[in-house]
Amino acid sequence: MSNLYLLHKPFQVLSQFSDREGRQTLAQYIDVKGIYPAGRLDYDSEGLLLLSDDGELIHRISHPRHKQPKTYWAQVEGQVDEAALKALRQGITLKDGPTLPAKVRRIEPPTTAPRQPAIDPKRHPSTSWLELTISEGRNRQVRRMTAHVGFPTLRLIRVAIGPWRLDNLAPGEWRKETLHAPRLTTNPARQQKRPNNKHRKPS
Q: What gap in Å lies between CA 171 and CA 46, rounded to an integer?
């Protein structure tokens, strides 16, 4: 059996446990010893981060070969049009090569915890929200994709990785799940057990 920890990483927190520059890290939010992130989430992005003390499980989740789909909510500058959505669905060419087609749709503004600092409505009077699912993990990929089609991302929240979802975790909260790691590649959703209570560690 393997332990998996689902953390809602807040805005401007590093996806690591220490930092020489004094920035906020995961250590301010989860105090479980011997766990490491399965992948990463950018400093200025929010949402679901998976951690475990099982190296094989971390590899199975984070390695590009396994192509765990990742779903994001993106608040972007302006009102996204159909041409931009079509381009994202077909795949676009970035500096490091073409992307795979994304699943993308416009959504109503989701119910989310306020971000500090918030998006300034005077600087960004018109915004819209997208839900995007990609199966790649390039550096800042979603931000580069939306900017490429003319709608820069202002706020980015990861809400799912494969079968695991953020659900009702507030920023800084986490919950633990137990699963059988060797069966992960066959059907990870079936291996999940009922999660324990979620936790918050004061920052």
A: 8
